[in-house]
Amino acid sequence: MSSGAIEVLVIARVPDEALRRIAAVESCLHVVDGRGWFDDEYRESWPVWSVRRYLGAHPIPVSSRHERDRMLASAEVILGGCLFPWICACDQRALRWFHQLSAGASNLLRGDLWGE
């Protein structure tokens, strides 16, 4: 990634075209496709009805907790949906903005985005 680039981590289930459109907004954006990478954590931490509604039966990409933590730590912007990783805190977290596609934000109170 070049100096001055803004890393945008997309964890919401959006179409491929949406990723291309986000990347085309500004040349300084580095869009990281994290769709599906956190699904196993969602299935472990969110109620079953939420997982069924928002994830369905999509396959889960192979990843490790270390890779997911690295993605969360380096992202300045996260594009998320109703479900998100409950544990986002990292010592070196660069996060400046969490943009949620769904209306409302009360679900975000469940996680550690706001610090302790």
Q: Which strand order do you get reading across the main beta sheet?
A: 2-1-3-4
Mean pLDDT, to the nearest integer, reads 80
The rough form would be described as globular
CATH class categorisation: Alpha Beta
Query: What level of helicity do the residues show?
Result: 25-40%
Give the terminus-to-terminus CA distance: 31 Å
User: How many E-type strands?
Assistant: 4
> Number of domains in the coordinates?
1
Structural class: alpha/beta
What's the alpha carbon Rg, rounded to whole Å?
Answer: 14 Å
Provide a brief overview of the structure.
With 116 residues, the protein is of the alpha/beta class. Helices cover 28% and strands 16% of the residues.
Q: Would you write up a description of this structure?
A:
It is a single chain. The protein is of the alpha/beta class and 116 residues long. The protein has a single domain, classed as Rossmann fold (3-Layer(aba) Sandwich). The protein contains 4 helices and 4 strands, in the order E-H-E-H-H-H-E-E. It has helices spanning 16-23, 39-45, 48-54, 65-74; strands at residues 6-10, 29-33, 77-80, 97-100. Strands 2-1-3-4 form a 4-stranded parallel β-sheet, with helices on both faces. The protein is globular. It starts with 5 loop residues before the first strand and ends in a 16-residue tail after the last strand. The model has no long low-confidence stretch (mean pLDDT 80).
Properties at a glance:
Rossmann fold, 16% strand, 116 residues, 28% helix, single chain, alpha/beta, 4-stranded parallel beta sheet
